[in-house]
Write a structure and sequence with these properties.
Layout lengths: L10 E3 L2 E3 L10 E2 L4 E2 L2 E4 L9 H8 L6 E5 H5 L13 E5 L2 H7 L17 H10 L6 E4 L7 H13 L5 E5 L18 H4 L4 E5 L7 H17 L6 E4 L4 H9 L4 E4 L5 E3 L4 E3 H4 L10 H29 L2 H7 L2 H11 L14
Helix pairs in contact: 8-12, 10-11
Length: 349
């Protein structure tokens, strides 16, 4: 099957492609929650972290007011429904990511015990448990069908979301396609029903430039339709990823990388490799993981605040002083068609 990815660094204006001069990075709102973006969301998942309950308990008090958890993990008892009240804002993922990992064939989990297939009714049961006082951004169930079928399914999920904010995650229309971003230009009146539009990073392109061009195009499509909806990129949380997609027009970012790698000023390294830094030679493994993960949260919070400042004031030079990777990220975004405000900086070189 063909893979659909944007290939031209141009805007979709009135059904045709043209150059756009509006900066892509900006400050937007998750309207139902009245939460502004950019928003960086540390994720928790039993996929890759089977003891997710212990991890969440260890890190919950260190979070900066936002996190992502999975409906699957609540359903399976890995996390309590009370986790939806753990932070000021909680993104409740639909559980498809975890369910795929749990299933071997059609009937067995990674622990070789029978499990029921994850289903829409089970997601709706979790939504029914969500405390109405919680500030939850609900993500729809993963459906690989045509875009109209995905929209109809998302509306069913939204009805069960009890008035919480809703994040429409667009999926490929079959198992072997990428998300057809240009097709979203035909359903913009439907997209306006939601609080955010989501895509999984690896499902909008087979290379970094393809992914960036797809996000640039999606921002153009929304802007041309008069929609200032946040774009949520799932599976992107390392600073260089966040900055690159931010300059392309994305607003919300989440991922598990902050629990796996140690963020440094110029790069990231596996947390295990941080043990080889002289100051960590004698640090016990669990203590080192806690130290590095906690430091990562501090980095992400600073990055979020710095991006918000850039969105408001447009000083790339200041952002680059705080996060040197912003220079490279801005250059990649510009190559892929994004309009980047530089305010006298050397244009990302």
């Amino acid at each position: 099957m063909p893979r659909h990815a944007a290939s031209a660094p141009l805007a979709w204006i009135g059904g045709s492609l043209t150059q756009c001069e509006t900066p892509h990075a900006g400050a937007r709102n998750v309207a139902t929650l009245d939460v502004r973006t950019p928003l960086l969301v540390p994720s928790f998942s039993s996929r890759g972290f089977p003891e997710v309950g212990a991890v969440f308990s260890e890190m919950a008090d260190r979070l900066f007011g936002v996190c992502l958890i999975s409906a699957w993990d609540i359903d399976q008892g890995h996390l309590s429904p009370d986790a939806l009240l753990a932070t000021n804002v909680v993104v409740l993922d639909s559980g498809g990511y975890e369910a795929q990992d749990q299933l071997i064939g059609n009937s067995a989990s990674r622990h070789d015990s029978p499990v029921q297939l994850w289903s829409v009714p089970r997601l709706h049961q979790i939504l029914n448990q969500a405390d109405e006082s919680a500030n939850v951004l609900v993500v729809n169930f993963d459906r690989r069908t045509d875009i109209h079928g995905q929209l109809d399914g998302a509306r069913l999920d939204q009805e069960r979301a009890q008035g919480h904010a809703f994040d429409f995650l667009v999926k490929p229309e079959s198992s072997d396609e990428l998300v057809n971003v240009p097709r979203l230009a035909t359903v913009t009146s439907d997209l306006g029903e939601f609080d955010a539009i989501g895509v999984t990073a690896r499902e909008v392109g087979t290379s970094l430039t393809d992914r960036c061009r797809s996000i640039v195009l999606l921002r153009h499509i929304l802007t041309d339709a008069g929609l200032s909806l946040p774009i949520h990129v799932f599976g992107a949380i390392s600073p260089i990823e966040v900055l690159t997609y931010f300059f392309c027009g994305a607003d919300i970012f989440d991922g598990l990388d902050w629990l796996r790698t140690a963020y440094r000023s110029k790069n990231t390294i596996p947390i295990d490799e941080a043990a080889y830094e002289e100051e960590n030679w004698g640090v016990p493994d669990q203590e080192l993981w806690l130290k590095e993960s906690t430091n990562n949260l501090s980095v992400l919070y600073l990055l979020q605040q710095s991006m918000r400042s850039y969105a408001e004031h447009g000083s790339l030079e200041v952002l680059c002083l705080e996060f040197p990777a912003a220079r490279r990220a801005a250059r990649i975004a510009k190559i892929c068609g994004a309009e980047v405000r530089t305010q006298g900086a050397d244009d990302g070189r």
